[in-house]
Amino acid sequence: MKKITSMLLAVVLGATLLCGCGSTTDTTTTDTATESTAADSSSSNGATFKIGGIGPITGGAAVYGNAVKNGAQIAIDEINAAGGINGAQIEYKFEDDEHDAEKAVNAYNTLKDWNMQLLMGTVTSAPCVAVSEKTKEDNIFQLTPSGTSVPCTQYDNAFRVCFSDPLQGTASAKYIGMNNLSSKLAVIYDSSDVYSSGIYETFAKEAANQPFEIVAAEAFTADNKTDFTTQLQKAKDAGADLVFLPIYYQEATLILSQADTMGYKPTFFGCDGLDGILGVENFDNNLAEGVMLLTPFAADAKDDATVNFVTKYKEQFGGDIPNQFAADAYDAIYIMKAAIEKAGCTPDMDASAICDAVKAAMTQISVDGLTGAGMSWTADGEVNKDPKAVVIKDGAYVAMD
Description:
- By secondary structure, the chain is of the alpha/beta class.
- The protein has two domains: 2-162 and 304-384, Rossmann fold; 166-295, Rossmann fold, CATH 3.40.50.
- The chain contains eleven helices and 16 strands.
- The strands form three sheets. A seven-stranded mixed beta sheet has the order 8-7-9-10-11-15-16, sandwiched between helices. A six-stranded mixed beta sheet has the order 1-3-2-4-5-6, with helices on both faces. Strands 12-13-14 form a three-stranded antiparallel beta sheet, covered by helices on one side.
């Protein structure tokens, strides 16, 4: 029976491999899933590694999900063209979760039915935490490119490419202090959001060690995130020369607009949630001039790897410039490749066996990527790499020293 089953599987997969492979060029697609199938395979049995992805490709956070989907696609195309992983090609299917935890679980179940072997996702924290419960239960390897909250990697099968929220908060405070960016600082954060409040907590703790004072710490919630004049007025009255924004770019555009109306012009500094602010419809990008954010990727960097990636991304996706989420996803696929190769996995292994082998290999590999050189991982899923910052200048992200 095992031999018959293997023969039938090989026939089915062989037929699948006759299908064409291509990348969408529309980064605002409303399709609920994107699938890329290898055109031909150099593996001896025609099998492929099936990597799934989950993230918001529609809705308010679509700029993140589309970037991840597209960045991963470029890496998969490169790997397949170069011979695949251990001689086997990659199949890739991406499901939309609309930045919703319940829909993320539904997307996961769809990918599970597709016989996904590894998961690259999810993109945002709350859906990622929900899905991590399922990947733990099923023992499927999970690598999130951008899920920053601590519980995203609470289980030993889950790792991340990005910094966690606590690390972002600590790193931001250290960066501001070491570069003397402020003497009196204010914080505006979302107390109802685990991403925002998690960053603020560790930022405030590290601030005690830095040469600046937090003179105002003003919160808002998901139910009240359109009018920030009260928070801004308190920051202005306290003499804050820098406002730290550990929030998402949607709210940041309102804060920048309202600060401009008030005549309040501090320096604004944020984390990876601000990445995407330059693409908001009807927002005056001039208001973002001088905004700084902690991010591991700058599209204007001149190293060969970044130039090659940015060129391909613009060519394939309508001239769009990739953000850090795209770069994180690109790195995520190559990280998976390195771990699979280190573990010696083959595509005929089931997802659980691959998970056991790959999670052990993750602590043994080192990867040079777009978002960090010599990246390595601890058993708790956290990445080791140096933090970087960019500043928005002339409508583009420019790397800071």
